[in-house]
Specification:
Number of strands: 8
CATH architecture: Sandwich
Shape: globular
Strand order of the largest sheet: 1-8-3-6
Structural class: alpha+beta
CATH class: Mainly Beta
Strand content: 15-25%
Number of helices: 4
Length: 174
């Protein structure tokens, strides 16, 4: 049977993934979800996805650690976050709901294995099990909403800092 590094089955692992919170105690529902995932392995140093590339898959970290990487305006990479399997983390979930390019890159800092869900399988889940699909979609919406609220707060913070810097330097000059 397929298990994680700590011996958990996919259903046991998925009980701890926030996207599946609404039915975490329903092994039948989690089993239906787990059946849609494939697995994929990547070696340390390899990119799972690159910022700007098209994508249609979401990943749950089965084993290993990754870094979420963004590029500056000058094209220099910087690490936004580090995610690991022991924290029951996932990424790429926006690809389940839109056709946009990847908003960040993901690079493996260790050898990794992932549970992978394609958008087409997610849509099939919603058709076959509407209540499960709706529950996952609601969690996706909550996640996106929280990120949007944080981004808005960050923009205000940056704007305030910029205004302060301009004021301290004597203004814009005329």
């Amino acid at each position: 049977m397929d298990t994680t590094a700590d011996g958990r089955t996919p259903v046991e692992k998925f009980k701890h993934i926030s996207l599946f919170e609404a039915f975490k105690n329903d092994d039948t529902a989690l089993g239906a979800v787990a059946a849609l995932f494939t697995t994929s392995k990547f070696t340390a140093g390899s990119f799972v996805m690159r910022e700007g590339e098209p994508g249609d898959t979401m990943y749950i970290i089965k084993t290993g650690t990754v870094e979420i990487v963004k590029k500056t305006m000058q094209g220099d990479p910087y690490t936004v976050a580090q995610l690991s399997s022991d924290k029951d983390m996932f990424f790429g979930e926006l690809a389940l709901i839109d056709d946009e390019s990847r908003s960040a890159g993901v690079v493996c800092t260790t050898d990794c294995e992932f549970y992978v869900l394609a958008r087409s399988k997610f849509l099939e889940l919603g058709d076959a099990h509407p209540s499960i699909g709706l529950a996952v979609t609601r969690e996706l919406a909550r996640s996106v909403s929280a990120r949007l609220r944080k981004a808005n707060a960050d923009i205000i913070t940056l704007f305030d800092a910029l205004v302060g810097e301009v004021a301290e330097s004597g203004g814009l000059g005329e």
